[in-house]
Amino acid sequence: MEGSIQLLLGELPKYLHCISHEFTAILIEACVVRLHEQGHQGDNIDLKVVGKFSKDVEIKKPYPVTDTLLRTWTEHNYTTDHAACAIALSLVYELTELTVISRSWTTTGFDYWLGPKGTPCEINLPFDNAVRLEISGIRQGNDYQINKRVKEKLVQTGQSDGLKLPAFVIVTEFSTPKAKFVEKQI
Questions:
Q1: Which tens digit of pLDDT belongs to each residue from 122-158?
Q2: Comparing C-alpha atoms, which of 80, 91, 69, 74 is closest to residue 9?
Q3: Rounded distance, CA 69 to CA 97, Å?
Q4: How many domains, in total, are found in the chain?
């Protein structure tokens, strides 16, 4: 995909300066395994992004899958969830002027707090210009399933609509692969 946006998975720890490198390494491992298990064997994988953005993106895997990785990532839902985070957080960084500031807590209905690139990590939550991010992954599905999951996640973010902050929902389907990126304005 000449001229397309590249998601350099190996660079994810640099982009997410407020999240530990060890955690981002886990997300990267899951993503490499999930893509491999869905038949995407090469180092470069084409990803179609639809919704708020319509882009062709190239995912660059930082290393090949090993038997050790395959034995580590045997639980499909857990792997898919973590892999979807790697893709979504990379997309946010590459397609917007935002980055992750913090993981959220369970009862908020979303996964991550986003802020403008350069926002100090020590900022108190919530803060001006914050955006909520909810992420989901589908191991193998179709457009109907992707759209259904997006709708479910938009409803789920309603738990924190009282914050009066916009929310992004990104659902990644790994067999195609395809990511739907939507924005909810309050």
A1: 888 777 789 999 999 999 999 999 999 999 999 999 9
A2: 91
A3: 33
A4: 1
